[in-house]
């Protein structure tokens, strides 16, 4: 289920990505063959609560470059085939109780990812 779309305003900031509902602790699967290009840090200056969800992964595949936020990757480099596990959804409810837990998808160039979903 898609939660929010690319250019909505979120608490006074521009939201440049797509949020896909995902329960805490769920397995996150590759939507197509992807190459993992290292972990990413979500927050530049995280609060204590944000530190537990401050991880994501950089990916490339199908001619696209994108990032998944709030995912603990199974590996940080190499090829993952379509349908294989990329990682595990981090415990968003511990940081933001009551929020709809989600994976944030952001294109590397910050363009609208909606058309790919």
UniProtKB/TrEMBL annotation:
Range of residues in the leader sequence: 1-17
Gene3D superfamilies linked to this entry: Glucose Permease (Domain IIA)
Coiled coil region boundaries: none
Record's keyword terms, sorted: Disulfide bond, Metal-binding, Signal, Zinc
Transmembrane annotation, as ranges: none
InterPro entries membership: Dup_hybrid_motif (IPR011055), LECT2 (IPR008663)
Name of this chain's protein: Leukocyte cell-derived chemotaxin 2
Organism in which the protein naturally occurs: Muraenolepis orangiensis (Patagonian moray cod)
Lineage, broadest ranks: Eukaryota, Metazoa, Chordata, Craniata, Vertebrata
